[in-house]
Specification:
Length: about 100
């Protein structure tokens, strides 16, 4: 019942192409290519001009200010949320305590 049923492969019908014979080819060696006169440098050299340095400092300052603003705003959001949760907890505690005194 739980054994898989494997389908049987029917015999091919019609024309069957014979296998093609592949003959090896010979490799002829040519003349080697001449070596380059001077090797190219691995990386281009970056030269910092005073204008480029000022631009990099300005961009870095802008990135630091933006990231700092985002982090401070996230911290402020957490502080406001925790303060509101604390106020809700005090109000609920007061309501439960006053309800217990009436009974």
């Amino acid at each position: 019942m739980f054994q898989p049923k494997i389908p049987t492969m029917p015999q091919p019908s019609g024309l069957v192409a014979p296998l093609a014979v592949v003959e090896p080819t010979t490799i002829t060696t040519g003349t080697p290519a001449p070596a380059p006169a001077a090797p190219a440098p691995a990386r281009p050299v970056v030269q910092l001009t005073p204008g480029t340095a000022v631009a990099l400092v300005g961009a870095g300052t802008a990135v630091v200010l933006v990231v700092g603003t985002v982090l401070v705003s996230l911290l402020l959001a957490v502080a406001v949320t925790s303060a509101s949760v604390a106020v809700c907890a005090v109000v609920l505690r007061s309501l439960i305590a006053s309800d217990a005194k009436r009974r």
